[in-house]
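Worked Example 4.2. Consider the chain below.
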Amino acid sequence: MRDISLHVLDIANNSLAAGASLIEILVEEDTVNNMLRVRIQDNGCGMDEETANKAVDPFYTSRKTRRVGLGLPLLKASCERCGGRFLIESEPGKGTGIDASFEYDNIDRPPLGDMPETIFSLVILNPSIDFVYRHLRNKQVFSMDTRELKEVMQGIPLNTPEVAGWLGEHLREGISNLDYTS
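Applying the procedure from the previous section yields the following structure tokens:
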């Protein structure tokens, strides 16, 4: 995958396939400590230890449409290549967490990619699912929680064109306002 946002999209789609009703996504850019971390946590069906260990094998997949699953193995390899780490935590009936970190300035680290578009797509295409997105850049934070947005919208779906337009702009503006000079 060309960038980290595509990995986030892939993992979130795995969470949806696992029956998650809540997906939490954290992006943490810590330039002071030279670290980029991405964490995706869901409340889906979870995996037992054996299945979680197999999930990073490119020749293992739970999908019926193809014989290989490259998303997690490629992400794990990218983390390790960039001086980071990769961890899967999962428990049947409780959900799964994926934690991926990279050396921020490592020349082999994939670019972060278009996180506003990734989060926007997930929310708009899955209106019944709740998403919590937090993006930290050193000491600054941007966050979006669809549970709060749904409460404010009083039943108006988030994928209604006017709301979707506002949401896309809110995500782009909120993330771009994080200070990239510090």
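The longest strand covers residues 22-30. DSSP finds six helices and six strands in the chain. Compare this with Example 4.1 before moving on.
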